[in-house]
Amino acid sequence: MAKDPLAEAGLHFDELNKLRVLEPDVSQKTVELKEECEDFVDKIGQFQKIVGGLIELVDELAKEAETEKMKAIGARNLLKSVEKQREAQQQQLQALIVEKKMQLERYSIVLEQNQTIVL
Questions:
Q1: pLDDT average, residue stretch 3-28
Q2: Beta-carbon contacts of residue 15 (< 8 Å; ≥ 6 apart)
Q3: How far apart are CA 88 and CA 92, in angstroms?
Q4: How many CA atoms, within 13 angstroms, populate the side-chain half-sphere of residue 111?
Q5: pLDDT tens-digit profile of 36-75?
Q6: Which Gene Ontology biological process is one annotated for this entry (predicted)?
Q7: What is the total count of domains within the chain?
């Protein structure tokens, strides 16, 4: 079988009988690889859009969580404030009770003294 002098020189004819530097099967594989790369790039673009949406959603949820956290901290601080106010009020009422008991004792003593004078 005689060797093709063009093939030995690295020149080939494609299916349209155009002269090519690459072998037809190498050229076909190159085209297939190019198409696969384009598909891959498209899929990467879709993936980036999906991931971008996911990141936005997570950021939104993080902001909502932070807002709820701040509300909870505010409610806890308000509760502590109310508790301290109640303690202060309780101490004031206990002091008032002690004062009224002392006043009652003075009145009781004065009453006893007045009763002994009258008798």
A1: 67
A2: 24
A3: 6
A4: 6
A5: 999 999 999 999 999 999 999 999 999 999 999 999 999 9
A6: protein localization to cilium
A7: 1
